[in-house]
Amino acid sequence: MTLETLVEKLELKCKCCWEKLKTTEIKGGYAGDLLSDVMANSKEGSIWVTRQVHLNIVAVASLKEHAGIVIVQGATPDKDTVEKATREGVPIMVSELTEFELVGRIYQLLQNG
Length: 113
What we know:
By secondary structure, this protein is an alpha/beta fold. The chain has a single domain, classed as HprK N-terminal domain-like (Udp-n-acetylmuramoylalanyl-d-glutamate--2,6- Diaminopimelate Ligase, Chain: A, domain 1), CATH 3.40.1390. It is 42% helix and 18% strand. The protein has five helices and five strands. It has helices spanning 3-10, 35-41, 56-64, 79-88, 99-111; strands at residues 13-16, 28-31, 46-50, 68-71, 92-94. Strands 1-5-4-3-2 form a five-stranded mixed beta sheet, with helices on both faces. Helix 3 (56-64) links the parallel strand 3 (46-50) and strand 4 (68-71).
């Protein structure tokens, strides 16, 4: 599934790197807010679901080569975060849903192809 499909099906708002939505494939997912846990356990190509909005999420997503980041509960990433994500090529999307609900929906989409 591509990021574009995820954005459309879950009505996400993309904050940067729109050009990557059509071509970036999601290989799995990871949910968490503890950066050390995400660095230790997430995998390349995953969509990362978090409530964090600061610069460090971009560094982690870039290091782990994530497909992108989805920030939940309508939280807005800092301006500096969006600028860094744009430079690093890390798509950031925002959802109004809770982390629990969003992760469940992403899981269903990935299972159904």
